[in-house]
Every structure is written in C-alpha cells, then in structure tokens.
What we know:
Blueprint lengths: L6 H10 L4 E9 L6 H10 L5 E9 L7 H10 L5 E6 L35 E7 L3 H13 L5 E6 L5 H11 L5 E6 L7 E2 L2
Parallel strand pairs: 1-2, 2-3, 3-4, 4-5, 5-6
Antiparallel strand pairs: 6-7
Amino acid sequence: MAKSLDPVVVAASELIRRFDEVDELKLEIKIREQGSAGYKRFLDQTNKLPKCKTLRISWLSKHHGWAVAMLHLLRSCNGTRKFSLLSLNDWNLTLVQPCLLSCPCHMDEIYKIDGLALNSLEEVEISGFTYSHEKIEFVKFISCNATILKKLVISMIPGFQLIEERDVIRSLCHPNVKVEFYMFPNCGRQVLFD
C-alpha cells in the first residue's frame, strides 16, 4: 500500500518553488519515516529552493543524520550568506532508530563539491551541536570550502569534553574565521564558552 504525502508539505514545497529569491528562508525539516523512501521524498521536495541571503533550518528528524541533508539544502539554495541550523534531534543525544546504511543520508558522495557553491557563505551558526564524526566532517567541509567565511558560532550541549572539542573545531577553521562557542547550562540561556 502506497503512503500518501502530507498535503501541507506538498503545498509548502509548491509555494516555495514559486519564488526565485527571498531575503530569508526558514524551513522546519521533519522526516517522519525511517528508511530511504522518506529521505528521498525530502530530497525531491527540496531540490530547488529560492536563492536567499539567510537560510534558517530547524532539523527535527530523529532517523536521519543532518550533515548530508544540510549540504543538500545549501546546494539547492546557492548564494546563501548566512546559514543557521537548529538541530533539535541532538538534544536526545542519539537517533531513535537510525536508518539503514543504504539510505542516501549515509552517502559520502554528497560531500563532493559538484554543484555546491559556498563562495558567498559568510556566517554559519549551529545550535544543539553534539560532537560526532559526522558533525566534525561537516564543519571541516564548510571551513575548507566557504572561501569567505568570517564567523562560525556553535552552541553546544553541556556534558561533553568541551575544551577538547572546541580546540578540534578551532583547528579546522582558517585563522581569519571568528569562532565562538556557547553552551546551554540548566538555566536555558546561552553562555559564552571560550
């Protein structure tokens, strides 16, 4: 039995395609399905996004990794100057039921630079950051390929080895990039951690 598409998601993706350019694009991404079908639907619905100065993503998927999805969104939305990601799945620290290795969200080929122009990206903010190989590879990819990157802001979840993680991330960035780290203690407000 075929699964039906969420009519709100379909309408939103059709509305987005009507615009060639916007100042700010806010997307809340929630892939409800585990496995490649839901992820492929996400790729299809976001393969052409309007050009924008600021791209804000709220990532709510609990089954799929976010690094490959974020590169896909940046590829679909070339010309972005500021990229802001709120990764809400990281607050749980683990994926509920990670998808199979055959899912497109695990494909290393997405890290290729083909079709991805980061030459306008000046600022990247990642909130809800937890230290993992996937996230470090994403930061490394951005820092190596965003040639005019000026600022990287990372808000981390407490409970990790923050000093070591901060030093690793700083070592990946060009010296001209201003790197700021924040953490969320129990009070719920961001606190500068530097």
